[in-house]
# Entry
Amino acid sequence: MVAFKYLVWPLLGTPVTALPSNLVPREALVPPPEPVDLTPACWKNLSCSFHEIEDMNMDTRLEFVRYMQAVHFGKLNSANQFRPIEGVITFFIDENLGSPGSWVSYVDAGIVEAIQRGGAIALDLGTFDGGNPGSPKWNTFLTEMKNGELDDRNVSEADGTINVKANTCRAMVGP
# Structure
């Protein structure tokens, strides 16, 4: 600042000791970097394999179910249909159950995979059901929800129970 002060002083007639308040520092003019989207690609297009889902810990799996509801299933009038699934996963978290590779993890992964695949088919994001017998049933349920054919929540819940049973059987037999 000393060199600036003595170089400018003769030109302005007074010494400069501070920058004027209306000047903005250069670094404030540089825009912040764009946020990085760390959402896995298979979440975005509903294409996670059974093994990708089974490899998720229960916290991540719960986040995935909530993501599907918030981002995708509103288009199917089903953004709130999976609270019971959330509750089961939350129970697993609370009780420290369901680590990847366990029986609980396999069963739950089969259920989540079927919901995801059924949703992807209902949203026209593909036709692959992953070989999961619950996927076509979730597709039917979610398509009927999208079309407004299931106004009765009790019917929706009963249909969901059937799908959970089908997915549990798949997990017991294996992918």
User: Anything to note?
Assistant: Residues 168-175 have pLDDT under 50 and may be disordered. Residues 111 and 167 are 5 Å apart (CA to CA). The radius of gyration is 27 Å. The chain is about 60% helix and 0% strand.
